[in-house]
Amino acid sequence: MAEPAFDVAACLARVRQRDEDAARDLVAHLYPLVIKIVRAHRPHRVAEEDLAQDIFLKMFTRLDQYSGLVPFAHWVSRIAVSTSLDALRSQLRRPELRRADLSETESDLLDAITHDDKAPTPGHALAARELAEKLLASLNPEDRLVIRLLDLEQHSLAEIQQLTGWNTTVIKVRAFRARHKMRKSLAHLEKRKPTP
Q1: Spatial separation of the C-alpha atoms in residues 33 and 41, rounded to whole Å
Q2: Is residue 161 one of the residues assigned to a domain?
Q3: What is the CA radius of gyration of the chain?
Q4: Has this prediction a pTM greater than 0.70?
């Protein structure tokens, strides 16, 4: 037997009447959406639970601003994205990624990627993900967000526009520039290979 659909409107009405059980139900309903956004966009030194808690706090304090013109989940998604971007902006500017910052496995993977004579091994999968995360971390928060949404999470331009409020031209330009910066960082890492 299928579980009944969650009635957001009824729950919101109860929350506005200060029903704590309804507030807990709303958080439980939205938690998977919020934590997915947080995991994709949080700064490395910020705990995901802390950022999720900030998002829910903002949601409840701004509840009177929700007009009902868009689905409630979209409204909360926008709060989650903007809160995550704000947290990223508040971090100090990161230093340039250097070859010395890479683990031995990541360095080996970089060699395998940039030289045709070596093929990456299946054991390089984790190192590839870590290297990609380091390259993403070298981008500014907005560019990182676009690359995550567009390339890693495979969102459409329309979905990204809805989440961020940016028009499609801005999204495409940010993605182009971000990919260029990542390629440049990767090339820079290869040039700085330590000599044996």
Answers
A1: 13
A2: yes
A3: 20
A4: no
